[in-house]
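Late entry, 7-methyl-guanosine-5'-triphosphate complex.
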Amino acid sequence: QNAWTLWFFKNDKSRSWEENQGPIITVTTVEDFWSLYNHIEVASRLPAGCDYSLFKEGIFPDWEDVRNAPGGRWMINVDKRQRSQCLDTYWLEILFFLIGEHADQHAHQVNGAVVNVRGKGDKLAIWLADASQPDSITRIGKMIKERLEIDPDQTIGFNIHSEEKARSSSAKKKWFV
Ligand code: MGP
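Prediction complete; structure with ligand written out below:
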């Protein structure tokens, strides 16, 4: 349905956050996706401070892009001890969710996804276009939990970009599933 661009973020302190984001390649077919996936390092082996992002072609992976600005992101924290066991599987499942357009009638809401590799604990996020659509947001959140087989007792939260931008990382979460 869509062309998807993979981005890489490397934390170089001499450059701005935006300058540290660089597009790697845009893929349009499943075959292209696999040759890309097989050529790059898995997330769990990236140095701390790096990110991969996969976004629909034309969307910059930041809060400021016009297609992201009214939206938000579902956040999944991956404990340090879970990195080797879960991070790469979760990320691959999320990539399938994106390129396979598995959100069905809500697929237009899905702009992209990010994996943050961090010493303090890794994070995965699914970025949605419109934070004013609680029904599709919660539906997608439930789909992700099911797909990743996250324990139903464990909650994941949705952050609104505009609030996050304003309040940095301590933003309040508006929805949980
Ligand atoms: P981060 O990389 O999402 O998480 O944001 P990290 O490194 O775990 O840090 P924490 O603050 O969540 O604990 C780190 C910082 O990068 C943010 O505080 C912002 O300064 C910057 N940043 C992150 N994002 C997603 C954006 C963005 O979309 N736009 C801009 N301008 N800066 C961002």
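Residues 17, 62-64, 116, 118, 168-169 surround 7-methyl-guanosine-5'-triphosphate (CB under 6 Å). Will revisit in the morning.
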